[in-house]
Amino acid sequence: MTSGFERGAAFVEGEYVPIAEARIPLVDVGFTRSDVTYDVVAVWDGAFFRLEDHLERFERGCARLRLRSPHDRAATTKILLDLVRMSGLREAYVEVICTRGMSRGGSRDPRDFDNRFYAYAIPYVWILRPEDPATGMDAVIARTVRRIPGDSVDPTVKNYQWGDFTRGLYEAYERGGRYPILLDQAGNITEGAGYNLFAVVGERLLTPASGTLEGITRRTVLELAAEAGIRAEAVDLDEDLFRTAREIFATSTAGGVMPVTSLDGEPIGDGRAGPMTTLLRERYWRAHREPRYRTPVDY
Ligand code: PLP
Q: Within 114-273, where are the H helices?
């Protein structure tokens, strides 16, 4: 495709544009009210990873918020494939968004809005730099902010309500770390700024059962753990139990399986990625070559 698209491509108002030229209308309430849901899929080595699972989650999120994307699954798939093909990116971060959109005739009734669809593909994003798998994430359990309660903002609907995470990020930086972990009102571990969490406690691999996005990477790890004969469980993960973990890792489409090597300034285990984290990380990236998970892009 023509120049301008190498840095990424966007689909806005029915047109493909270079990412630098992509614009949204100021009065879209996706922006002014965070009335929106979205999803992020990775392209790895020229193929989408678990595209159907991401689109299914996106459709579920739209339904819960009573949003109607103007594009069905087949049309959405075509748009995403087009975006990646136009950008030429072999490794990409691909986002699909549905907003409440624009009011018809100035009404404030959410039923009177024309919902809007946006999508874009940019180079792959790493929450933890790929050259740092052993160094890992320096995490901080936030003390000044908790995760917004799930009965206020449903964490299983992927959302832009990041006020709690942003506060957590600032707290983490002030305390010498970079990666916040938020507790819920009961003091259980939830998730961080764009990642789910796992802890190896004794022989068990634990992850929070609720209060989090049901991450596709988390699901992949649970499946890979089952295949590897690892006992994995989704539980209410109390902060004290979490602190006894010999390994902790985070999961996200933006970075995969990422070791947490320190917590509140103290090393986890020997301060390097542990054996279960390393095994699951390797299997996660190997799974990207398996046809069952891949939707190849025809460049
Ligand atoms: N939790 C939150 C709040 C997120 O924003 C994300 C991803 O962006 C995740 C968890 C990880 O989800 P996934 O593995 O589907 O990327």
A: 163-174, 216-227, 239-243
Judge whether 295 lies within some domain.
no
282 and 141 in a single domain? The answer is: yes
Query: Whole-model pTM above 0.90?
Result: yes
Instruction: Using the atom order of ligand 1, give the atom closest to the CA of residue 218.
Output: 14
Q: 213 in ligand 1 pocket by Cβ < 6 Å?
A: yes
Q: Give tens-digit pLDDT for 152-207.
A: 999 999 999 999 999 999 999 999 999 999 999 999 999 999 999 999 999 999 99
215 alpha carbon – ligand 1 mean position (Å): 5
Residue whose Cα lies nearest atom 13 of ligand 1: it is 215
Q: Is the CB of 257 under 6 A from ligand 1?
A: no
| Contacts with 268 (C-beta within 8 Å, 6 or more apart), sequence order | 245, 246, 247, 248, 260, 261, 262, 274
Instruction: Indicate if 172 and 235 belong to the same structural domain.
Output: yes
Q: Domain tally for the chain?
A: 2
